[in-house]
Amino acid sequence: MPAQAPTLTTVPVLSGGKWSTPAADRYEEVYNPSTGQVIARTPLLGASETAEIIEAAAAALPAWAATPVVERARVMFRYRQLMEEHFEELSVLVTREHGKTLAEARAEVQRGLEMVEFAAGIPAMLMGDSLPDIARGVDAECVRHPVGVCAGITPYNFPNMVPLWMFPVAITCGNTFVLKPSEKVPLSAVRLGELLIEAGLPDGVLSIAHGAKECVETLLTHPKVAAISFVGSTPVAKIVYETGTRHGKRVQSAGGAKNHLVIMPDADMDQTVKQLAASAYGCAGQRCMAGSLAVAVGAAGDPLVEGLVTHGAAMTVGASDPGVNAAAESLGMGPVIRKEHRDRVASYLDIAAEDGATVALDGRKADGASNGFVIGPSVVDRVAPAMRVAKEEIFGPVLSVSRVDSLDEALALGDGCEYGNGAVIFTQSGYAAREFKQRFNAGMIGVNVGVPAPMAWFPFTGWNQSFFGDLHVQGKEGIQFYTRQKVTLTRWPRQEDSHLDPVWAEKR
Ligand code: NAD
């Protein structure tokens, strides 16, 4: 690791309600992608430091699980208020450590805030079922209990929102929670933790561990962790699911994507181009719901590509941090997360050309030069299904375009896709939209909507290699994941019958 400036902030961990900066053998640098400068360093915890944090979370569990759910929810109401008060600060922090534009960061924090609002309503959602007289004199009830210590492992692309998909729900359901944010963007998670403590969360209910593989492996195998929520790339999501379930934990594990955007010839082309650009280039393409393969049906192909190239070429690209760019507020697209990632994204343009596709707009030539990790929007035309740009998740501002002759052909492309997060159709035909909704091989569907975004109240229903597990994050499934059910059968015999044969009821 390169030498660190002596003043460089080491990102603190949270354990048992106390912040500390443990000495670690290894650190990961946190960059400001707008400038390319290192702004902090993340300690990469080993097994024993991670286990200590888990033990603290386990120690806090009994008292928190026994706290009435209405009181637990009240912490979320206060948390929501604090997040509102610090909304702009949280948004700027996302931009600073991630690089997305301020508008995108604000949208992210808003989606996260909605998860807190959802969690504040959990008392109503946790109410159980009951059936009196399921047998004579016997009543049945089914209620939800917390599962125990839960852990969340999150990716770099939503430093604020994805942690909020997890811990507000888990905690309000009565669990304690260990968050392991992405080591590339840990600052938002730390700020979220500080505000939650300020909201009155008791010590140890939320912990924050930092690290990479070793830290995650400890969370996946430790006997005191009951449930794992993971969001990240597909290869890691699969490992997390397999390791966690092998160690007896319930696991929800969300992975990568290759989202198809189908454009019918009757689509409103101006609107469609705008929506496609927002879908493919929003957050510089670093979204698991980013549209990355446009499938143009019939006559849609030429006007679509022409519109995308014109739109993409006109986008402003550059430093998104308002501290270094006075025009940040109106910026079209910010940098990507790291220099290596920018190079990887750029390499796909060479791969596409070698495979025989046409690079219609080359983001490497975009203006907006800064010392940051900037790459402009690209459009790759005439992409065939077997090409790597048609199949692989690039996770950058590259939109590939395939041309097909019919909706059936577009649906068949979806059938061949290993992922299944989302898919969108642009059309004015209700029939085509309905066919698409019914038949496309993905869990989140958009009709004339660029990104069928996951919303707090509905489950984020990734399919295929985009999700491993049964119960997804968010919505009712999130609550089901963080709770286990208990059924009780109750009989209260009359006192005057108590001298009778103990199995009197069976004789009634
Ligand atoms: P990543 O898989 O590299 O990292 C995610 C988390 O896993 C991080 O906290 C990281 O520290 C940890 N990790 C990395 N390698 C590990 C290993 N070998 N063993 C154990 N833990 C490991 O993902 P990323 O680059 O941070 O995020 C981008 C990916 O996340 C993209 O593929 C994107 O599609 C996906 N994503 C999916 C969703 C979804 O809901 N499906 C949402 C956001 C992002």
TrEMBL record:
<dbReference type="InterPro" id="IPR015590">
    <property type="entry name" value="Aldehyde_DH_dom"/>
</dbReference>
<dbReference type="InterPro" id="IPR016162">
    <property type="entry name" value="Ald_DH_N"/>
</dbReference>
<dbReference type="Pfam" id="PF00171">
    <property type="entry name" value="Aldedh"/>
</dbReference>
<dbReference type="InterPro" id="IPR010061">
    <property type="entry name" value="MeMal-semiAld_DH"/>
</dbReference>
<dbReference type="InterPro" id="IPR016163">
    <property type="entry name" value="Ald_DH_C"/>
</dbReference>
<dbReference type="InterPro" id="IPR016160">
    <property type="entry name" value="Ald_DH_CS_CYS"/>
</dbReference>
<protein>
    <recommendedName>
        <fullName>methylmalonate-semialdehyde dehydrogenase (CoA acylating)</fullName>
        <ecNumber>1.2.1.27</ecNumber>
    </recommendedName>
</protein>
<dbReference type="GO" id="GO:0006574">
    <property type="term" value="P:L-valine catabolic process"/>
</dbReference>
<dbReference type="GO" id="GO:0004491">
    <property type="term" value="F:methylmalonate-semialdehyde dehydrogenase (acylating, NAD) activity"/>
</dbReference>
<keyword id="KW-0520">NAD</keyword>
<dbReference type="GO" id="GO:0006210">
    <property type="term" value="P:thymine catabolic process"/>
</dbReference>
<feature type="domain" description="Aldehyde dehydrogenase">
    <location>
        <begin position="23"/>
        <end position="487"/>
    </location>
</feature>
<dbReference type="InterPro" id="IPR016161">
    <property type="entry name" value="Ald_DH/histidinol_DH"/>
</dbReference>
<keyword id="KW-0560">Oxidoreductase</keyword>
